[in-house]
Amino acid sequence: MADFLAENNQCGQNILRLVSRGNAILAELLRLSDFIPPVFKLENSQDKAKYGEIISDFSYFKNAEYFDNKIDTKTELQDLDEEFKDNHIEILTRFFQAFTCVHKYITDLIRFLEDLEEGIYIQQTLESVLLNDDGKQLMCESLFLYGVMLLVIDMRIDGMVRERMLVSYYRYSAQKAASGDSNVDDVCKLLRSTGYSSAPGAKRPLSYPESYFSRIPVRGDFVDMVIGRLRSDDVYNQISVYPLPEHRSTALATQASMLYVILYFDPDILHNQQARMREIVDKHFPDNWVISVYMGITVNLLDAWSPYKAAVTALNNTLDTGNIRELSAKFSTKVGKLKPVLDKHLKEGVLIEEFVLDNIAKLINIIRDGNVTLRWLMLHTTQLSPSAEMNKRCKMLREQVLADSKYDPLAVFELLLNTAHFEFKLKEMFKQMLSEKQEKWETYKKEGGERIQELSEVFSGTKPLTRVEKNDNLQAWFAEMAKQISSLNYDDPTSAGRKIVQLIQALEEVQEFHQLESNLQVCQFLADTRKYLHQMIRTINIKEEVLIAIQIVADLSYAWEIIDSYTSYMQEGVRRDPSLVIKLRATFLKMASALEQPLLRINQANSPDLISVSQYYSGELVGYVRKVLQIIPRSMFGLLDKIITLQTTQIKEVPTRLEKDKMKEFAQLDDRYQVAKLTHSISVFTEGILMMKTTLVGIIKIDPKQLLEDGIRKELVQQVALALHQGLIFNPKAKVG
User: Fold this and answer.
1) Which Pfam families match (predicted)?
2) Is the pTM of this model over 0.70?
3) Of 28, 34, 113, 254, which is least surrounded by CB within 10 A?
4) Rounded to whole angstroms, how far apart are CA atoms 246 and 230?
């Protein structure tokens, strides 16, 4: 099949654009979920009393006239309604447009499947698309993203809040709806409240989320075939990057999370098909039950699958007490073993070019081990969601993992720091080596060729060298070798590599058979040539595939939200040792790799959404970086406070004239030493943050100088506000003069 994503392949381009749109819609939903007007939540009695008569859920549609008349007959309600509309119509329109995009997305996907079946795309069928690597990935992603949209809407925007917002939009935009410009009805049917609530103590509704997923039916054969592909194939070709069998579930983690969501479109498998569920669990969840679905949204399978008989039965093997004990102990041991290994490799002068090129497989194994360990421990020790918290077995499992793995969050955090720093150093080295690869190859080739040519001249008798007799055979042989070296072609690395190995062997043999060992200078020339040929082989092995493998293995998208639980350790570490910022920088860059998941398809489709989606995720990450590093200005102000206390309460003011015998009394050496020490500590903090260098996080550049200045301004505002709050106290009973 021709390239599925080629610009002239209409079928590939359509599904790619659809998936790109899906990722952009999700970014918009996540962005908007932080800006829900609190008034729609009607959480306090004040809001209920004031707005209760102008805000309504879907019960409005049963009695719209009565509701509107009630507002029209009271002037104060009319004024309030008008004011409410002016204040909220903009954000309501934005929410409604996002909801409409979700509805349009699924209708476009259904239309695409119909077009595919009707043969509109020449020589393309559902089966042929699913046989193509890119086609298979995009078809799976298209359905998965729709499922994630529905889950995100329900998790982040409460059902009743959604209904109130939709009703308010419907009322305030009645003309649009009447003119047929809007599909309010369809959007309302799709996104009406499901009864689900993320509030602590809330019970899960019956048949949730499958009844929610079936509001707009998706073709059964498509769902079946997608599940079939995810069950049996390595959809993203990840197993080659994770060759060890024990890492298989990590290799398949992306498609495992997709399978989790897509199974809700065919709940019969979860309920009744034990053989299928057993196959799914054995392949994707043999050693894990907490998964990351999309950009750090985590799910505990025991809690999520508790209503489904076949799913829970299949999962019981994974959740066996002995299995959990074994897994917890294994990863606990790994944390202990990896620490000295990473410390050794991070020492100055260890990661040099020669060492890296000779040990690349071992180094990638260290990165792989570190990341698999981090993934398992961070996911399986994370705080339970409110619904999982109510599940007794979920709580027991988490407590068992914490106990059996002797979970130490500080040790896990240190492993994260060191792994990120190690990856960063290795990646930077490889990038540099790749950029210099051809230049170095040519240099080594030239040096090796010149030495062999010189030997040829030595044996011809034209170039004098101590005690070397003329030898026409050797002269001709070395001249031929020089030709062979100069004919090596950089653009054909496989053939060049084979030739170089043969040349090295030939040089070793000629040294033995012609008793050339007796002449130290000739030996030196041969040794140098072999050294340069070895360097050429090393240089051939510098491949971009290594960088790609590191990038895949180093993925941290699963911790997009979990990472927040390690903030206190980051801040405490920086407070104790400001130079830790260097390692933190590598960790932030590792987190930025999570942006690739939502941006990949948007970028491939050349979508204009690329900038807004990049800005959203980059902005979130930069906000987190600022939050972590705010500890530096805060610590600086803490030290300044101590200096001020010393200078105002303990250090005496030195008079203009001072008697000699009072010199010691006014010297106050200990106090002045403390001031100097504290002042030095402040400069160490500023140096620490400046060590971070200018860093590109996603598409936003972080300038450490600006970061420090903003942090100082923020802390200064807080200090001044606190001082005024505590210092300016007015007595309300005091008489006004």
Assistant:
1) Strumpellin
2) yes
3) 34
4) 19
